[in-house]
Design a protein that fits this description.
By secondary structure, the protein is mainly beta. It is built from 1 helix and 5 strands; from the N terminus they run βαββββ. A hairpin with a 5-residue loop joins strand 2 and strand 3.
């Protein structure tokens, strides 16, 4: 599957973004969250949330967020900086997918 950049202690979201419904793995691990994101259309990132005393879960972020990373040029995550919508958040781990420049192009027309 595609490589991901890991940002420990960070969440990422856009206030007006739609909830992306992807298949939630039975047990959330970084690898399983990433595979679920890879298998889900328009998933650009996944956040693993570890609640106190609860089970970890995966939350998926779609093309209407600035949570993914672009491998080329001065795009998002250049100079090893986290994505634009990333915020510090305890108990969260953000996995940003390395995207092709045109990954989200079709999303605009759905």
């Amino acid at each position: 599957h595609k490589p991901y950049l890991t940002w420990t202690g960070m969440d990422c979201n856009e206030a007006s973004a739609q909830t992306l419904h992807c298949a939630e793995p039975a047990e959330a691990t970084p690898e399983r969250c990433q595979i679920a994101c890879d298998d889900c259309s328009y998933c650009v990132a996944v956040v693993m949330v570890q609640s106190v005393g609860g089970k970890a879960k995966c939350e998926f972020r779609g093309c209407d967020t600035s949570c993914g990373c672009y491998s080329t040029g001065s795009g998002q995550c250049a100079q090893d900086l986290p994505p634009a919508d990333a915020i510090a958040s305890k108990g969260h781990a953000l996995f940003s997918k390395m995207l092709d420049p045109h990954f989200c192009r079709d999303f605009a027309f759905t």
